[in-house]
Amino acid sequence: MILRLTAFLALLYALGFALFSVTLAKPAEATRTEAVVVLTGGKGRIERGMAIMKRGEAKRMLISGADPSVTREDLARRLGRGTLKTLRCCVDLGSEAVDTRSNAEEARRWMIKRGYRSLRLVTSDYHMRRAAYEFASDLPDTTIIEDAVQTRPSLLLLFKEYNFYLVRRAAFWLDM
User: Fold this and answer.
1) 57: CATH
2) Secondary structure (H, E, C), the chain
3) Which residue, 40, 114, 131, 133, shows the most beta carbons closer than 10 Å to its own?
4) Is 62 a domain residue?
5) How many separate domains does the chain show?
6) Rounded Cα distance, 48 and 145, in Å
7) Span 102-146, pLDDT tens digits
8) Is residue 7 part of a domain?
């Protein structure tokens, strides 16, 4: 009986991982939201957020989890000409967050302060499911558009992210 249950759970876990791996998030269609929240930690995320701002698809952007020593001028040098004006007027650098959960908490405080009710969440495709789960939990009355930066994650990275996602879901379920 225990062997059958263990085999069933292992099969369920493997099928869940396969489903997780083949259903990574995609970039969003052009959709206007009040805010863009970019989670740091992956290539192309900030660039994606700036492209959204340049197209006028959001009023303001939060870069959550930014290193406290990073300035708008540093970002402008990295992102290229013409970005400093947007960075100065419409981008906030949040340096309180250290993980996905605290990204959502930081974004919630930022959204409440501005009275925003809709956001576009920008992160990597492999990270989106967990990030969207955290944001939906912290911002239940907010419209969240998932806008993933496409990557080519390794099998090991997918495996780690799948396990982080399962642990976070279990912790939420157990009210931890």
Assistant:
1) 3.40.50.620
2) CHHHHHHHHHHHHHHHHHHHHHCCCCCCCCCCCCEEEEECCCCCHHHHHHHHHHCCCCCEEEEECCCCCCCHHHHHHHHCCCCHHHHHHHEEEECCCCCHHHHHHHHHHHHHHHCCCEEEEEEECCCHHHHHHHHHHHCCCCEEEEEEECCCCCHHHHHHHHHHHHHHHHHHHCCC
3) 131
4) yes
5) 1
6) 14
7) 999 999 999 999 999 999 999 999 999 999 999 999 999 999 999
8) no
Amino acid at site 88: R
End-to-end CA distance of the chain: give it in Å, rounded.
Answer: 31
Q: Which domain holds residue 48?
A: 24-151
**Any idea what the Cα angle at residue 57 is, between residues 96 and 31, rounded to 5°?**
105
Phi then psi for residue 41, to 5 deg, are 115, 0
**CA 76/CA 78 separation, integer angstroms:** 5
Residue 14 in domain: no
Q: Is 161 exposed, middle or buried (0-12, 13-18, 19+ CB in 10 A)?
A: buried
Tell how far CA 69 is from the center of its chain. Answer: 22
Is 84 domain-assigned? yes
Classify strands 35-39 and 91-94 as parallel, antiparallel or unpaired.
Answer: unpaired
Rounded to the nearest integer, the mean pLDDT of the chain is 94
Residue 100's Cβ-side half-sphere holds a number of Cα atoms within 13 Å equal to 23
Task: Tell the residue number behind the tokens 């989670």, with chain if given.
Answer: 39
